[in-house]
Amino acid sequence: MKRLVILISGRGSNMEAIVKACKAEGWPAEVAAVISNRPDAGGLQFAAEQGIATAVVDHKAYATREDFDAELARVIDGFAPDLVVLAGFMRILTPGFTVRYAHRMLNIHPSLLPAFTGLHTHERALEMGCKVAGATVHFVTAELDHGAIVMQAVVPVLPGDDTKALSARVLAAEHRIYPLSVRWFVEGTLVWDGERVTHRDGAAQQLLLS
After folding, report:
1. Could you check whether the bond before residue 28 is cis, i.e. omega within 30 degrees of 0?
2. Does domain 1-101 have CATH number 3.40.50.170?
3. Which residues make Cβ contacts (< 8 Å) with residue 160, sequence separation at least 6?
4. Strands (E), 61-173
5. Can you list the pairs that 92-95 forms with residues at least 24 positions away whose Cβ atoms lie under 8 Å?
6. From the CB of residue 184, how many other CB atoms can be counted at a distance below 10 Å?
7. Counting C-beta atoms within 10 Å of the first and last residue's C-beta, which end of the chain has fewer, N or C?
8. What's the rounded Cα separation, in Å, for the pair 33 and 55?
9. Architecture field, domain 108-210
């Protein structure tokens, strides 16, 4: 039974999707804890209602990123996770932290990486006139929004789209590919091939939505 620790900063909709899928699909895993850097994160209430342990490590209480990451790692390790899942966790992590959880920490980013790393992905996609957008699940490395890609979802950019419409379409896709990617990890079907990750049984690592 694999143990998952999920990190959030807000409502945690991807966390909620993962928790629900884990239970409904009978994964060989349990969500051991949900941890936030914000005491007012809405997702903490959902986790508590599901009987999941919660914790807060408030980044504002620490003078440096290194101090915050050290305490965060201490709290995470108290739950002995096999996988750390970043689900809307809005903190840039130090290299030492990413090395600590190398090959066992996932993130989802609302763009088709390597395009549009960082913030304001939907605004930038619309400004560039992109015809498609999407989301990427990837392993976390010290370089922001890089790391081996596990799965991507592609959605159309429709005439008249604004950032609200596009972000909602991408978020719906995130809720499909992130639980599946986490499930693949806990079932042991992800295979490292150098710096790339493939699926052991050749499952499609892309989702094309119209």
Report:
1. no
2. yes
3. none
4. 83-86, 105-109, 132-139, 149-156
5. 92/65, 92/144, 93/69, 93/140, 93/142, 94/65, 94/66, 94/69, 94/142, 95/142
6. 21
7. C
8. 8
9. 3-Layer(aba) Sandwich (3.40)
> What is the chain's mean pLDDT, rounded?
98
| Start-to-end C-alpha separation, the chain | 36
Q: Which two tokens stand for residue 167?
A: 């972000």
Q: Which residues are catalytic?
A: 109
Closest CA relative to residue 76, chosen from 102, 49, 97, 106: 97
User: What number of residues does the chain have?
Assistant: 210
Summarised one tens digit per residue, pLDDT across range 150-199 is 999 999 999 999 999 999 999 999 999 999 999 999 999 999 999 999 99
Which ranges of 26-84 would DSSP assign to H, the alpha helix? Answer: 43-49, 65-77
Amino acid at 93: L
What residues does CATH 3.40.50.170 cover in the chain?
A: 1-101, 108-210
Report the C-alpha gap between 99 and 141 in whole angstroms.
7
What are the strands, taking DSSP E only, across the chain? 2-8, 29-36, 53-56, 83-86, 105-109, 132-139, 149-156, 190-193, 196-199, 206-208
pTM, 2 dp? 0.97
